Amino acid sequence: MKTTLQLAAPLLALCMGIFSCTKTDTVPAPPEAANRILEFRIVNVTGDPIYGAVNDEDSSIQVYLPYDKQLVIIEPEITVSEGATVTPESGTMVEDLLDYFWKGRDLRYVVKSKDGATRTYTLHISVQQPDLYMEELSPDAENITGYELDLSQIYTNIFLVARGSGFSENHELVRMVLVKDDGTELPPLPMSVTNTNNISELTAVISAYPGSMDETIAALKTGGLYRLRIYSYSKVSTMHHPIRITVKN
User: Fold this and answer.
1) Cβ contacts of residue 43 below 8 Å, gap of 6+?
2) Which PROSITE patterns match (predicted)?
3) Kindly report the CA angle at 28 between 27 and 33, in degrees rounded to 5?
4) How many structural domains is the chain composed of?
5) Residues 12, 1: Cα–Cα separation, whole Å
Protein backbone atom coordinates (compact mmCIF):
# COMPACT_ATOMS: atom_id res chain seq x y z
CA MET A 1 0.00 0.00 0.00
CA LYS A 2 2.84 2.37 0.83
CA THR A 3 4.46 1.73 -2.56
CA THR A 4 1.19 2.52 -4.35
CA LEU A 5 0.84 5.82 -2.53
CA GLN A 6 4.42 6.73 -3.35
CA LEU A 7 3.77 6.18 -7.09
CA ALA A 8 0.44 8.04 -7.09
CA ALA A 9 1.78 11.16 -5.43
CA PRO A 10 4.14 12.21 -8.28
CA LEU A 11 1.41 11.45 -10.87
CA LEU A 12 -1.09 13.62 -9.00
CA ALA A 13 1.42 16.44 -8.77
CA LEU A 14 2.10 16.19 -12.51
CA CYS A 15 -1.63 16.43 -13.36
CA MET A 16 -2.08 19.40 -11.06
CA GLY A 17 0.83 21.10 -12.74
CA ILE A 18 -0.61 20.57 -16.20
CA PHE A 19 -4.04 21.96 -15.28
CA SER A 20 -2.57 24.86 -13.36
CA CYS A 21 -0.61 25.91 -16.46
CA THR A 22 -3.71 25.91 -18.71
CA LYS A 23 -5.04 29.46 -19.24
CA THR A 24 -8.42 30.34 -20.76
CA ASP A 25 -8.35 33.59 -22.74
CA THR A 26 -11.58 35.54 -23.18
CA VAL A 27 -11.84 36.92 -26.71
CA PRO A 28 -13.92 40.10 -26.76
CA ALA A 29 -16.77 40.30 -29.28
CA PRO A 30 -16.03 42.53 -32.27
CA PRO A 31 -17.50 46.00 -31.88
CA GLU A 32 -20.79 46.60 -33.66
CA ALA A 33 -20.73 48.87 -36.69
CA ALA A 34 -21.71 52.43 -35.88
CA ASN A 35 -23.72 52.92 -39.08
CA ARG A 36 -26.57 50.48 -38.58
CA ILE A 37 -30.35 50.70 -38.74
CA LEU A 38 -31.45 49.26 -35.42
CA GLU A 39 -35.21 49.46 -35.94
CA PHE A 40 -37.56 50.29 -38.81
CA ARG A 41 -41.28 50.68 -38.22
CA ILE A 42 -44.22 52.15 -40.16
CA VAL A 43 -46.39 54.31 -37.94
CA ASN A 44 -49.14 55.78 -40.16
CA VAL A 45 -51.45 52.85 -39.42
CA THR A 46 -54.23 52.29 -36.94
CA GLY A 47 -53.11 50.27 -33.93
CA ASP A 48 -49.63 48.83 -33.56
CA PRO A 49 -46.90 49.94 -35.99
CA ILE A 50 -45.68 47.60 -38.72
CA TYR A 51 -42.09 46.54 -38.06
CA GLY A 52 -39.58 45.78 -40.78
CA ALA A 53 -36.97 43.03 -40.56
CA VAL A 54 -33.50 44.61 -40.74
CA ASN A 55 -30.77 42.37 -42.18
CA ASP A 56 -27.24 43.70 -41.67
CA GLU A 57 -25.65 40.94 -43.75
CA ASP A 58 -27.15 42.15 -47.03
CA SER A 59 -28.11 45.65 -45.81
CA SER A 60 -31.81 45.15 -46.49
CA ILE A 61 -35.10 45.95 -44.80
CA GLN A 62 -38.10 43.71 -45.49
CA VAL A 63 -41.59 45.02 -44.74
CA TYR A 64 -44.82 43.05 -45.14
CA LEU A 65 -47.97 45.17 -45.49
CA PRO A 66 -51.40 43.71 -44.73
CA TYR A 67 -53.54 43.86 -47.88
CA ASP A 68 -56.54 45.31 -46.06
CA LYS A 69 -54.53 48.45 -45.20
CA GLN A 70 -54.07 49.28 -48.92
CA LEU A 71 -51.47 51.90 -48.05
CA VAL A 72 -50.27 54.17 -50.84
CA ILE A 73 -48.08 56.26 -48.49
CA ILE A 74 -45.96 55.03 -45.59
CA GLU A 75 -44.31 56.95 -42.77
CA PRO A 76 -41.24 55.12 -41.42
CA GLU A 77 -39.69 55.84 -38.04
CA ILE A 78 -36.06 54.73 -38.05
CA THR A 79 -33.68 54.15 -35.14
CA VAL A 80 -29.98 54.14 -36.00
CA SER A 81 -26.69 53.65 -34.14
CA GLU A 82 -25.83 56.25 -31.51
CA GLY A 83 -24.50 59.40 -33.12
CA ALA A 84 -25.36 58.25 -36.65
CA THR A 85 -27.69 59.94 -39.14
CA VAL A 86 -29.97 58.47 -41.80
CA THR A 87 -31.01 59.89 -45.18
CA PRO A 88 -33.90 60.24 -45.88
CA GLU A 89 -34.38 61.07 -42.23
CA SER A 90 -36.78 59.30 -39.91
CA GLY A 91 -40.38 60.40 -40.47
CA THR A 92 -39.94 61.18 -44.17
CA MET A 93 -43.01 59.97 -46.05
CA VAL A 94 -42.58 57.42 -48.83
CA GLU A 95 -45.20 58.54 -51.31
CA ASP A 96 -46.85 56.85 -54.29
CA LEU A 97 -46.32 53.20 -53.42
CA LEU A 98 -48.22 52.34 -56.61
CA ASP A 99 -45.28 53.72 -58.57
CA TYR A 100 -42.96 51.51 -56.49
CA PHE A 101 -45.12 48.41 -57.08
CA TRP A 102 -45.77 49.05 -60.77
CA LYS A 103 -42.40 50.44 -61.89
CA GLY A 104 -40.08 48.93 -59.30
CA ARG A 105 -38.18 52.04 -58.22
CA ASP A 106 -35.49 51.63 -55.55
CA LEU A 107 -36.05 52.78 -51.97
CA ARG A 108 -32.73 53.27 -50.16
CA TYR A 109 -31.58 54.62 -46.81
CA VAL A 110 -28.01 55.79 -46.21
CA VAL A 111 -26.73 55.60 -42.62
CA LYS A 112 -23.66 57.69 -41.77
CA SER A 113 -21.71 57.10 -38.56
CA LYS A 114 -19.98 59.77 -36.49
CA ASP A 115 -16.66 58.98 -38.18
CA GLY A 116 -18.18 59.35 -41.66
CA ALA A 117 -18.52 55.66 -42.61
CA THR A 118 -21.69 55.00 -44.62
CA ARG A 119 -23.90 52.02 -45.27
CA THR A 120 -26.82 51.85 -47.70
CA TYR A 121 -29.91 49.80 -46.85
CA THR A 122 -32.48 48.82 -49.49
CA LEU A 123 -36.14 48.71 -48.51
CA HIS A 124 -38.24 45.86 -49.91
CA ILE A 125 -42.02 46.03 -49.53
CA SER A 126 -44.29 43.04 -50.00
CA VAL A 127 -48.07 42.97 -49.64
CA GLN A 128 -49.96 39.96 -48.33
CA GLN A 129 -52.30 40.15 -51.33
CA PRO A 130 -53.96 37.35 -53.32
CA ASP A 131 -52.55 36.73 -56.79
CA LEU A 132 -54.35 38.05 -59.85
CA TYR A 133 -56.07 35.63 -62.19
CA MET A 134 -57.56 36.62 -65.54
CA GLU A 135 -59.56 34.66 -68.08
CA GLU A 136 -58.11 35.00 -71.57
CA LEU A 137 -60.00 37.15 -74.10
CA SER A 138 -58.63 34.99 -76.94
CA PRO A 139 -59.05 31.19 -76.70
CA ASP A 140 -55.45 30.62 -77.82
CA ALA A 141 -52.66 32.18 -79.88
CA GLU A 142 -54.16 30.85 -83.13
CA ASN A 143 -57.75 31.93 -82.48
CA ILE A 144 -57.43 35.62 -81.74
CA THR A 145 -60.43 37.66 -80.67
CA GLY A 146 -60.83 40.81 -82.77
CA TYR A 147 -62.19 44.28 -82.02
CA GLU A 148 -62.81 47.14 -84.45
CA LEU A 149 -62.84 50.91 -84.09
CA ASP A 150 -64.46 52.62 -87.08
CA LEU A 151 -63.35 56.24 -86.94
CA SER A 152 -65.52 57.09 -89.95
CA GLN A 153 -68.56 56.80 -87.68
CA ILE A 154 -69.84 59.65 -85.53
CA TYR A 155 -69.28 57.53 -82.45
CA THR A 156 -67.41 54.25 -82.09
CA ASN A 157 -66.22 52.26 -79.11
CA ILE A 158 -65.06 48.88 -77.91
CA PHE A 159 -65.37 47.29 -74.48
CA LEU A 160 -62.63 45.10 -73.06
CA VAL A 161 -64.07 43.04 -70.21
CA ALA A 162 -61.57 41.25 -67.99
CA ARG A 163 -62.98 38.54 -65.74
CA GLY A 164 -61.04 36.84 -62.99
CA SER A 165 -60.14 37.20 -59.33
CA GLY A 166 -57.86 39.24 -57.10
CA PHE A 167 -59.01 42.63 -58.42
CA SER A 168 -59.11 45.46 -55.91
CA GLU A 169 -62.55 46.93 -55.26
CA ASN A 170 -60.88 50.36 -55.17
CA HIS A 171 -60.44 51.36 -58.82
CA GLU A 172 -57.96 54.06 -57.82
CA LEU A 173 -55.56 51.18 -57.13
CA VAL A 174 -56.21 49.53 -60.51
CA ARG A 175 -54.85 50.22 -63.99
CA MET A 176 -55.64 48.51 -67.30
CA VAL A 177 -53.25 48.89 -70.25
CA LEU A 178 -52.65 47.39 -73.67
CA VAL A 179 -49.15 46.03 -74.31
CA LYS A 180 -47.45 45.71 -77.70
CA ASP A 181 -45.41 42.66 -78.68
CA ASP A 182 -42.19 44.54 -77.84
CA GLY A 183 -43.44 45.18 -74.29
CA THR A 184 -44.33 48.84 -74.81
CA GLU A 185 -47.37 49.91 -72.81
CA LEU A 186 -50.01 52.19 -74.28
CA PRO A 187 -51.57 54.92 -72.09
CA PRO A 188 -53.90 53.64 -69.34
CA LEU A 189 -57.35 52.67 -70.58
CA PRO A 190 -60.42 54.54 -69.33
CA MET A 191 -62.29 52.22 -66.99
CA SER A 192 -66.03 51.90 -66.61
CA VAL A 193 -67.36 53.49 -63.43
CA THR A 194 -70.45 51.28 -63.33
CA ASN A 195 -70.71 48.06 -61.34
CA THR A 196 -67.60 48.91 -59.32
CA ASN A 197 -68.66 46.55 -56.53
CA ASN A 198 -68.04 43.53 -58.79
CA ILE A 199 -64.44 42.62 -57.98
CA SER A 200 -64.45 39.67 -60.40
CA GLU A 201 -64.86 41.86 -63.49
CA LEU A 202 -63.16 44.98 -64.85
CA THR A 203 -64.23 46.86 -67.97
CA ALA A 204 -62.16 49.23 -70.09
CA VAL A 205 -63.79 51.45 -72.70
CA ILE A 206 -62.02 52.78 -75.80
CA SER A 207 -64.21 55.32 -77.55
CA ALA A 208 -63.90 57.92 -80.30
CA TYR A 209 -66.20 60.71 -81.42
CA PRO A 210 -65.78 64.02 -83.26
CA GLY A 211 -63.40 66.27 -81.37
CA SER A 212 -62.19 63.54 -79.03
CA MET A 213 -58.46 63.45 -78.27
CA ASP A 214 -58.15 60.02 -76.67
CA GLU A 215 -54.48 59.11 -76.04
CA THR A 216 -55.24 55.44 -76.57
CA ILE A 217 -56.80 56.07 -79.99
CA ALA A 218 -53.72 58.03 -81.06
CA ALA A 219 -51.40 55.28 -79.77
CA LEU A 220 -53.34 52.53 -81.53
CA LYS A 221 -52.85 54.21 -84.93
CA THR A 222 -53.77 51.47 -87.40
CA GLY A 223 -54.20 48.78 -84.77
CA GLY A 224 -52.42 45.46 -84.32
CA LEU A 225 -51.94 42.72 -81.74
CA TYR A 226 -51.99 43.63 -78.05
CA ARG A 227 -52.10 41.90 -74.70
CA LEU A 228 -54.20 43.20 -71.84
CA ARG A 229 -52.32 43.91 -68.62
CA ILE A 230 -53.89 44.71 -65.26
CA TYR A 231 -52.24 46.31 -62.27
CA SER A 232 -54.11 45.88 -59.00
CA TYR A 233 -52.34 47.47 -56.02
CA SER A 234 -49.11 45.46 -55.61
CA LYS A 235 -49.93 42.75 -58.18
CA VAL A 236 -49.72 42.68 -61.96
CA SER A 237 -50.93 40.15 -64.51
CA THR A 238 -50.73 40.05 -68.31
CA MET A 239 -52.82 37.88 -70.59
CA HIS A 240 -50.85 35.22 -72.44
CA HIS A 241 -52.81 35.42 -75.70
CA PRO A 242 -53.10 38.64 -77.71
CA ILE A 243 -56.20 40.34 -79.03
CA ARG A 244 -56.46 42.10 -82.38
CA ILE A 245 -57.64 45.70 -82.62
CA THR A 246 -58.38 47.11 -86.06
CA VAL A 247 -58.70 50.86 -86.56
CA LYS A 248 -60.59 52.02 -89.66
CA ASN A 249 -60.25 55.65 -90.73
Assistant:
1) 49, 75, 76, 77
2) PROKAR_LIPOPROTEIN (PS51257)
3) 140
4) 2
5) 16
* Burial bucket for residue 103 (CB in 10 Å: 0-12, 13-18, 19+): exposed
Strand boundaries in 11-141, DSSP class E: 37-42, 50-51, 53-55, 60-66, 76-80, 85-87, 108-112, 118-128, 133-134
Domain containing 219 equals 133-248
Measure CA 172 to chain center.
Answer: 18
pLDDT tens digit sequence for 30-68:
567 889 999 999 999 999 999 999 999 999 999 999 999
- Choose one of 128, 154, 177: the last residue of a domain: 128
Cis peptide before 88 (omega within 30 of 0): yes
Please count the other Cβ atoms lying within 10 Å of the Cβ belonging to residue 98: 16
Please count the other Cβ atoms lying within 10 Å of the Cβ belonging to residue 216.
Answer: 20
CATH at residue 51: 2.60.40.2340
Predicted pLDDT of residue 11:
47
Cβ–Cβ < 8 Å for 183, 193: no
> With contact defined as beta carbons under 8 Å apart, do 109 and 61 qualify?
yes
Same domain, 137 and 68: no
Spatial distance between the Cα atoms of 69 and 65, rounded to a whole number of angstroms: 7
DSSP 173: G
pTM, entire model? 0.80
